[in-house]
Amino acid sequence: MRKSIALAGLIAAAIFLTCYSSCNNKKSSSGTAGADDSLKKVIERGSYLANHVAVCMDCHSKRDTSLYSMPIIAGTEGGGAGFAFGKAEGIPGEVTAPNITPFALKDWTDEEIIKTLTGGINKKGDTLFPIMPYPHYSGLAKEDVLAIVAYIRTLKPLESTVPARKFFIPAAMFGPLPANDIAQNKIPDPSDKVKYGEYMINAAACMDCHTPMGPQGPDFSKAYSGGFVFDVPMFKVASSNITPDSATGIGTWTEEMFVSKFKNNSSAEVVNRKPGRENTYMPWSMYGKMKEEDLKAIYAYLRTIKPISNKVEKYPK
Questions:
Q1: What is the model's pLDDT at position 61?
Q2: Would you call 219 exposed, middle or buried from its count of C-beta atoms within 10 A (0-12, 13-18, 19+)?
């Protein structure tokens, strides 16, 4: 019964997404074939979001720390992180991203997964630390959230567990949970590049890494100005200033330069090299496969935000 309800919801979302994409596919000759085709499109959308925009697989898989941008180790997708996130990511404790394959989520309803993704409360009722970017995912349209859930359900079940989280402060101090009525959220018309770019950059949670840390946590008055330092045993690197400041940000970058940066840094030649201590936390291998029109929209949005002068030393001593 639970599965049939979930499938009905996903098919409804599939039909919505198909129509949102202009209903161009006319090859289905029956209701069943049409529903199957629509569900396939939903899963494809979920795969795209989970791997190249919201990059769920980035944190919930094992990564090869010896290669540039630490690409995912094939076969570990969704099975849980290979190392704990902690001080280097601004966490007051240690958190290891859990297994999100069907092996771990077999007893979870879609509603429980959605509540975790967008509300920051898991099946046990625990408040998640916002390194899991649920404050951003709460802004996703419901059909995009359902698409991610549909895709996660298709992952290969991996029988793995991760260590329990450890915090030095009460969960109540993590900050207010987001208002969580995702049914009200809409995907902006892609023809409005700035508005659509704002939606996509929120889905990608770019702000989280590209905002400097202050005494009380991220300094959102300097959002996107970079300088967040990841100090891990393998290397030490600071995030870039991506505001339109001409001297220290990307103010002089053209749209072509912006898109090319992603495409070049996600190429097999670049990703498969061993950079040693001059590595990066930026998952180029994932973001670099984002659709060109989506990257252009993000660029358009970034051109509208406040320029902030903040010279970042990429590899601080």
A1: 97
A2: middle
Identify the DSSP state of 165.
P
pTM over 0.90: no
> For the chain, give me the number of helices (H) and strands (E)?
13, 6
User: Of 183, 187, 179, nearest to 111 (Cα)?
Assistant: 183
Instruction: Supply angle C-alpha 48, 50, 55, rounded to 5.
Output: 115
- Classify burial at 250, counting beta carbons within 10 Å of its beta carbon; exposed 0-12, middle 13-18, buried 19 or more: buried
Write the secondary structure of 108-134 as one string of H (helix), E (strand) and C (coil): CCHHHHHHHHHHCECCCCCECCCCCCH
Cβ(280)–Cβ(65) under 8 Å? no
Note the pLDDT of residue 3. 42
Q: How far apart are CA 197 and CA 59, in angstroms?
A: 23
41 to each of 44, 48, 131, how far by Cα in Å?
Answer: 5, 10, 29
Q: For residue 15, what pLDDT is reported?
A: 38
Question: Locate tokens 């049914």: which residue?
Answer: 183
For the chain, domain boundaries: 1-21+33-185, 188-317
Which residues does 40 contact at the CB level (< 8 Å), separation at least 6? 14
| Cα dihedral 223/225/231/235 (nearest 10) | 140
Q: Are 130 and 120 in contact (CB under 8 A)?
A: yes
Give the model confidence (pLDDT) of 34-50 as tens digits: 778 899 999 999 999 99
User: What is the spatial distance between Cα 50 and Cα 287, in angstroms, rounded to a whole number?
Assistant: 10
